[in-house]
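Morning. Coffee machine broken again, so started the prediction first thing and wrote up yesterday's gels while waiting. Chain of 391 residues, entered below exactly as on the submission form.
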Amino acid sequence: MSKAFLKAEYDARLHRLRGAMDSKGLDTLVIGDPANMNWLTGYDAWSFYVPQIMVVGLERKPVWIGREMDAGAAALTTYMDEADVISYPEELVQREDAHPAQYMARWMADNGFGHKTIGYESDVYYFSPKSLSLLQHGLPNARWIDADLTVNWVRVEKSQAEIDMLQQAAVLAGLGQRYAQDNVQPGVRQCDLAAGIYATVIKGTAEFGGDSPALSQLILAGEAAATAHPMWTDAIFEAGQTVAFELGGCRRRYNAGLARTVHLGKIPPQVASTASAVEEGLERVLDALKSGVRACDVHGAWQRVLKRHGLEKKSRIGYSIGVGYAPDWGEHTLSLRAQDTTPIPNNAVIHVMLGMWMAGWGLELSETVHVTEHGSHCLTDVPRAVAQLSG
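Came back before lunch.
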């Protein structure tokens, strides 16, 4: 199994992360997010349902500590030395009277981390309060600092190798979107269409295949389109429905999102007028997107269009995207919303997500966008207009 990137790419990422750690006064960082482990070393396995961490020092190479049966994935997906892959015994998995974090703490204490200033990720789906508590109990002389999102913010600025990977993910997302539009029709079950979408984005192209996207493929049909994140069912599509597809492609755990909307039959005037406003708003957002511009100013460009059309969207309109594992592909950093004054870094990749959820129907339009000092570039080329399909 080949590595996702050259070793020099991971070395450069480690150098950047250590700079961020040093600026925060951290000797050590404990990573609990599998997406951050992947970004830093390439480690990739469905191993995050049990405790695992990565320990990063300013001078020591990253160390992965996880379940014994998952250690082999490090040799397949990373350039890590065997000595830096630490396994806890299988007997510690899901027991009431013992916990893997106790083993992790003992290893860290025995390997010079007992008096370090240790940062940790405090808001991670996969790093439980119990794990943190046991680590801190086992290392009582360490100084513990909340360093949440330290890796995530370093990740926001993408390398060219990452941009290339995201471009491939976007190709896969486009394939899924075209399949959905070519195969949705009255009488087809939502679950059957979802199965075909997944098969399409995972099969990929002759040059490369895909992974399962970190976010579920979403199908919003009829009344279900009035809310943001409904799951598909075995209900059939019906004539007269407006159907939104919020889909994604994933390549080596790099995700690209792509949302489009279709109507099964003649497009109603309300749908057409709302879609026109959303398309105009997307153009203004893309015009405003440039590195150095504040996130709130990009949101303002969208809001001015909505105000003129008498429409409202309370949620954010975009977020940084990249490496991700279920249940989320966002990086939890940049958000395009009215209150966010963060300047957009050069080479950020943002999923611009414009959804309008109305009474009894809804529509969505999105693009995954590479942002530079010269402006924005969409990674996909699927037509944006609401497609009128036979109903």
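The mean pLDDT is 96. Going to sketch it on the whiteboard this afternoon.
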